[in-house]
Amino acid sequence: MENKDKPILIIDAYNIFARAYTVVPLMSSNGYHLGGTIGFIKSLSKYIEMFKPSRVIVCWEGGGSARRRKILPEYKMNRKPIKLNRPDIYEDIPNTQENFNHQISLLTQMLSHLPVQQVYVGECEADDIIGFICRYKFKGQKKMIVSMDQDLHQLISDETLQYSPASKKILDQNYVLNRYGTTVENFITARCFIGDASDGIGGIKGCGFKSLIKHFPELSKEEFISVDDIIRMSRERQRIKRPLKILTSISENSEIPKRNWRLMYLDNSNLSFEHIKKLEYSVGDYNPKKNKFGLVKDLVKEGIDMPRGLDVDRLFMRINAYITR
Prior knowledge:
Shape: elongated
Largest sheet: 6 strands, mixed
Oligomer: single chain
Order of helices and strands: EHHEHHHEHEEEHHHHHHHHH
Distance between the termini: 10 Å
Radius of gyration: 22 Å
Strand order of the largest sheet: 3-2-1-4-5-6
């Protein structure tokens, strides 16, 4: 049984790795950049101390969602590759895909020595895994999601919070309301009209959080407002008020937010029966193990200075204090 007074720490793996990869200037004695791998583990150590979790689940991308690409072929197709942003330090180091892939592979290997549950399911996005964990697997259990992904705001609740490493803030329901003007319950409804350029998801021209809240203040209430509700209200208000451009745009492009709901809302609709079965097994199969020697061996092989590069003793002190049950 989980200790319900201690949160489950849920890590958006690629999101946190990418941040470390771009900004951590760590080189091994073998001449390789390993900022992504070591930066991730050092961040994980810090999060364990901050949140004192009963369990850590690291959620990996599974190659993208075939179901979403079927709905929108250009979904996530034009994302720019992740590059190092420290040219002053990395000017003589090739920014290669081989190095990036090596760091990912090395990270999964190093995490296998820690009492950390890694979840990967092919053609299943990390967001879907996190949504499954939060909405279906651990109801009534405190959860802390670590990610900068705005899409995950929809999972915030009385029992689920989000920590953003970029702002170093814990994001709760009040944060979403104050930042965007919409409640958590209606955050994704609003986003369906706005779109998400980073994922190649188009929205309706003229729709932003401010304009939507101005014309549909219902979005700032706790009662759930659906995409269909907004479309219906647009048509009704067009007849009552003078024609407003935003209301006309919504009425004439109603297929866009309906499509976006299928892309953005995190539930089981984008998961196959096989996905759900694998997730049930992966999340349920929790057998925490510790292998300090194995981790040290990998670090020595890769040429990582200890404790300056990574303080293994401090990492295991935090693990022993909070995770091991």
